[in-house]
Amino acid sequence: MRPCAYFSNGKCIETMEAHIRRGLELIDCLYLARNYGAFLGRLLELNPTAAGDLLRKAYVLHDVGKCLEMFQNRRGGFGYHEFYSYLVARKVLAGFGEAGDIASVAILLHHHDWIRKTIVKRPPSLRLAEECPGLIQALSGLEVPDKIPWSEPVEEYSCVEKTLKRSLRAVYTLLLPIVVADNYAAACNRGGKGSTLGKEILETLKVRGWDLAGCLPGGL
């Protein structure tokens, strides 16, 4: 079974692969083709090519938490998936050093769920759906574990807070294109069921004359 990024009434409406590829399309055309890698690289202390590569990898990883077997088997919501994605990203992006930590924090914040009323729960099983690690590895070039590398949320949020204090601007410079690409892909691939932000993004792209704004069935 192919990993799914969005279910409606138990039916997979958008596969993980489709969600990733559509978002990468926007990151490449709207950001990296316009030299965003150079701007990002100055903040991350990376060369422009490496900075752009990190942005693409971070986007590929941003929803990997949705690949948990329990999510894919129950074919419904994906509560706390951004934290589970963060745990995977922190591990697989370790080779980027501080820049990898910054990218992981951007992934954690891609739904802006910093303040929660409940503590993130450890899932009953940490195992990812069978096809997911191979898919994410093929799209990112990173070795992806078959289980979430669990760490206690209280400890992780303490580390995240330190990263935000050190590198707030860099976090948001990575976060912006990830959020835009995420909502763009959802708006394009879910038959008009994307978020309000996704619809606003499409309208903005239309005004700016971007051809990739016409992705929804029937146009805008």
TrEMBL record:
Keywords recorded for this protein, A-Z: Antiviral defense, Hydrolase, Metal-binding
Keyword Metal-binding: yes
Signal peptide: none
GO molecular-function term, one example from the UniProt record: hydrolase activity
Keyword Hydrolase set for record: yes
GO BP annotation list: defense response to virus
Sequence ranges assigned to domain HD Cas3-type in this UniProt record: 37-185
Domain of life: Archaea
The protein's name in its UniProt record: Hydrolase
Organism encoding this protein: Thermococcus eurythermalis
